[in-house]
Write a structure and sequence with these properties.
The chain has 398 residues and is of the alpha/beta class. The chain folds into 2 domains: 3-278, Aldolase class I (TIM Barrel, Alpha-Beta Barrel); 326-397. The chain is 37% helix and 13% strand. It has helices at residues 3-11, 47-54, 99-111, 128-145, 162-171, 184-188, 196-213, 240-253, 280-295, 317-325, 338-341, 349-361, 367-371, 377-380; strands at residues 21-22, 55-59, 65-72, 117-121, 152-155, 174-180, 226-233, 258-263, 331-332, 384-386, 389-390. The protein has an 8-stranded mixed sheet with strand order 1-2-3-4-5-6-7-8. The protein has a 3-stranded mixed sheet with strand order 9-10-11, with no helix packed on it. β2 and β3 (65-72) form a beta hairpin. The chain is globular, with a radius of gyration of 23 Å. The protein binds iron/sulfur cluster (SF4). Residues 77, 79, 81, 84, 86-87, 123-124, 191 line the site of iron/sulfur cluster. Iron/sulfur cluster (SF4) is lined by residues 77, 79, 81, 84, 86-87, 123-124, 191.
């Protein structure tokens, strides 16, 4: 197998791994080597199809768009997580890169402008610490020997040691640990040999401890790497309340940048192959709710959970909250504090700041002023007053 074929083998199923803000485009792998029907052989792929097999258009935390190579160092794994296509014993062709081999291939792609950044994970072989060393070796070759200065997101393996986490933080822009489930009990239904507290939660705490104990200049590019995690939404029959409780705790206590929610999808030849797929809309609602917790000052108690502690699938959680709380008590745009403005559907942090600034110069009396700030007035109008008058009455003008 040549290096490109290895990459295509390894990158199949990586769409299960959400990383950075995917923007579609290249996000649909056309090669699928883990036991799924693949009618094309790599040699038959057009250059665009080859690229689509392993690169993904992504938006970095600073808003920059990059093409990210998202792959594994190895698809061989000794663990047997119930949902995972790479689990031990599953029958498909495995592939493994040596660190040097992968680094050389990536740099070729980088020079050919096929990939600008890397998201690198791996199946586990001979223990998490051993596998972590291989990821670190790869990153060191890229940064130190080959001078790669682009974006790098490295996965922390279950079983990694604290010194390894620190080294990863010195090399990467982002590090992540996949919690997969919100707590120990739920994880047992998904990954019987992963230990929630010791193997998964503890490294996330280490990242924050290291950030607090060392100056930023010691890290790659003079900045602390960000931290994210991923959950398999619906994979362990957990509720949205459980997922968001853990997410909220992580954002508050270990400065998690964000959680990714990957709606469970059954994989053939795994113990969960007959479990029903989870509606992808659930991912969307979880993202909306997690952003409300992170950026909009909402608390878990504000979330419109149903009796079974899930978010309603067909209601935007912010809109649902506003329908219950603002319909009869609209917010006066000219007097509200920033945190109250953020409670209004259609108003985000930038809009709130624009309102506060505009208000210093003049009273806002009609929806036109809001529309000029890029606010969708149809969303806002049922919940606000403009200079004491219901804005809804002006809506017919738009
Ligand atoms: S440890 Fe990772 S690669 Fe291995 S089976 Fe579990 S989820 Fe899959």
């Amino acid at each position: 197998m040549n290096a490109l074929d290895t990459l295509i083998e390894l990158s199949s199923q990586m769409e299960l791994e959400h990383a950075e803000e995917s923007r579609g485009g290249f996000d649909t792998p056309s090669a699928n080597a883990s036991g799924y029907s693949t009618t094309n052989k790599p040699a038959c792929f057009t250059p665009k199809e080859k690229r689509a097999a392993f690169t993904h258009a992504a938006q970095l935390p600073n808003g920059k768009q990059v093409v990210l190579l998202k792959t594994l160092l190895s698809s061989a794994c000794e663990r047997d997580c119930y949902y995972c296509p790479f689990r031990a014993g599953r029958d498909f062709r495995r592939a493994t890169f040596k660190p040097q081999e992968f680094a050389e291939l990536f740099m070729k792609m980088n020079k050919a402008k096929m990939a600008e950044g890397i998201f690198l994970s791996s199946g586990i072989a001979a223990g998490g610490a051993n596998t972590q060393n291989k990821i670190i070796d790869t990153a060191e070759i890229l940064r130190k020997k080959m001078g790669f200065r682009g974006y790098m997101h490295l996965k922390i393996m279950p079983g990694a040691e604290k010194g390894q986490v620190e080294r990863m933080m010195q090399l990467a822009d982002r590090v992540s640990v996949n919690l997969e489930a919100p707590n120990t009990e739920r994880l047992a239904k998904l990954a019987p040999h992963k230990i929630f507290i010791e193997e998964l939660l503890r490294p996330l705490k280490w990242v924050e401890e290291i950030r607090r104990s060392q100056p930023a200049y010691k890290f790659w590019n003079g900045k602390y790497p960000s931290t994210v995690t991923q959950f398999v939404a619906g994979g362990s029959d957990e509720s949205d309340l459980e997922l968001l409780t853990t997410t909220n705790w992580l954002m508050k206590n270990v400065r998690l940048t964000r959680a990714y929610f990957s709606a469970f999808f059954p994989i053939r030849d795994t113990p969960l192959e007959n479990k029903a797929a989870v509606d992808p809309l659930r991912e969307h609602r979880l993202y909306q709710a997690s952003f409300l917790l992170r950026d909009y000052g909402f608390d878990l108690e504000d979330m419109p959970f149903t009796q079974n502690e899930n978010l309603p699938l067909h209601a935007d959680p912010k809109m649902a909250w506003a329908q219950m709380n603002l319909k009869e008590k609209p917010i006066e745009i000219n007097k509200a504090e920033r945190r109250d403005l953020l409670r209004i559907p259609g108003i985000g942090p930038k809009h709130a700041d624009a309102i506060l600034q505009a208000r210093r110069a003049t009273k806002l009396r009609d929806l036109t002023a809001l529309r000029k700030m890029g606010i969708i007035v149809a969303r806002v109008s049922p919940f606000v007053l403009l200079d004491g008058r219901r804005a809804e009455s002006q809506l017919a003008m738009f």
